[in-house]
Write a structure and sequence with these properties.
Pfam family, one: MR_MLE_N
Distance between the termini: 43 Å
CATH superfamily of the largest domain: Enolase-like C-terminal domain
Mean pLDDT: 97
CATH architecture of the largest domain: Alpha-Beta Barrel
GO molecular function, one term: galactonate dehydratase activity
Shape: globular
Order of helices and strands: EEEHHHHEHEHEHEHEHEHEHEHEHEE
Enzyme class: lyase
CATH topology of the largest domain: TIM Barrel
EC number: 4.2.1.6
Keywords: Lyase, Plasmid
């Protein structure tokens, strides 16, 4: 079997564009991959336009290890966000091809299931006015939808420090959410790399009474010593990793023991096999894996296959129950969350198929999403 063509499709939404990749073979089997490139879709498409003819066409999609090795090595460039995302989209599509050819779900090809359902948490649900009353009502809707865990960034457009009034507002928001969902629902606190260590530590201590399951990216990702400083002075587990794009760059994080949970993004880390290797390495440090997932249905399906076969998996992020309906419709087949868990995905392959008519009806949008803008949480990006 050989790869004979690669096609790209971009689906537009209110605040993000989702890039789907179809890998076609000479035996008529087609695999689908995906990468969500916030504000960098042109860069991804440009990379694929050059990488596909030089690295992908003519290769055997079953030889994934060899394909990814050459895509990373032969460009003679330091792998970055764009390169690793392009590799991931192709790599995921190759797993889909292999699963379809063999009649097996992808997780069976990666070692087989170690659980019969996959714990989920909701994100993207708090697109409301930033008041305790509105956040509480939105949180209740999340629980009514079947989730038993949810994540929020209550910090507005904060950066480095917060004034006293804003600190009180943050506490009021989290308190309202906790009261709304009760003590049995997990709350995860997203910090989006906003703070200096002193502020991150202070806010973590103020939020401790509401029993968050983690604080995520409390400081910017560039200085792991600063992250270690936070981790050593808070009692809430620390999660990070969505902006680390190769497994090599996780080395210092593990050696410093600066986080309790890592959050690699499969679609930015080179794909399923690279993330599986990283998870095994994390396990040597007793670190859990909770993959970052802001993707549409194809990326979500890939995440579920990884979760199914990874022993130190913790919980799976999911946005698409709180996005426009056409996001899920673009590639149906992802199972729904029931009582806080995804069922195992059904194969063969990833278990999803791209619906070209839906993608055609919702073309790419020229949007720019800024997490440090006022009202960013409404997820209505600025138009270029």
């Amino acid at each position: 079997m050989r790869i004979v063509d690669v096609k790209t499709y971009v689906l537009g939404t209110a605040w993000r564009n989702l890039t789907f990749v179809e890998v076609h073979t000479d035996e008529g089997i087609t695999g689908v991959g995906e990468a969500r490139m916030l504000n960098h879709t042109d860069a991804l498409l440009g990379y694929l336009a050059e990488a596909v003819p030089n690295h992908v066409l003519g290769r055997d999609p079953f030889q994934i290890e060899d394909l990814v090795f050459h895509m990373m090595r032969d460009d003679y460039a330091r792998p970055d966000y764009v390169m690793m995302s392009g590799i991931a989209a192709i790599e995921i599509a190759c797993w889909d091809i292999m699963g379809k050819a063999l009649g097996l779900p992808v997780y069976q090809l990666l070692g087989g299931a170690v659980r019969d359902r996959i714990k989920a948490y909701a994100n993207g649900w708090y697109t409301v006015e930033r008041t305790p009353e509105q956040f509480a009502e939105a949180a209740r809707r999340v629980v009514e939808r079947g989730y038993r865990a949810l994540k929020l960034d209550p910090f507005g457009a904060g950066y480095y420090e917060l004034d006293l009034a804003e600190k009180r507002r943050v506490i009021a928001l989290v308190e309202a959410v906790r009261d709304a969902v009760g003590s049995e629902v997990e709350i995860l606190i997203e910090m989006h790399g906003r703070f200096n260590p002193a502020t991150a530590i202070e806010m973590a201590r103020l939020l401790e009474p509401y029993q968050p399951s983690w604080i995520e990216e409390p400081v910017p990702p560039h200085n792991l010593a600063a992250l270690k400083k936070v981790a050593e002075q808070v009692r809430i587990p620390v999660a990070t990793g969505e902006r680390i794009h190769t497994r090599y760059d996780f080395r210092e994080l593990f050696e410093l023991q600066a986080a309790d949970i890592i959050q690699p993004d499969i679609t930015h880390l080179g794909g399923l096999l690279e993330t599986k290797k990283l998870a095994a390495w994390a396990d040597a440090y007793y670190v859990l894996v909770a993959p970052h997932n802001v993707c549409g249905p194809v990326g979500t399906a890939a995440n579920l296959h990884l979760a199914a076969c990874t022993t130190n998996f913790k919980i799976q992020e999911h946005f698409n129950d709180f996005a426009e309906a056409h996001v899920k419709a673009a590639a149906p087949g992802v199972p729904d969350v029931v009582d806080g868990y995804f069922p195992l995905p059904q194969g063969p392959g990833l278990g999803v198929q791209l619906d070209h008519s839906v993608v055609a009806q919702h073309p790419r949008r020229r949007v720019f999403f800024n997490l440090f803008a006022e009202e960013w949480h409404r997820r209505q990006a600025e138009r270029e």
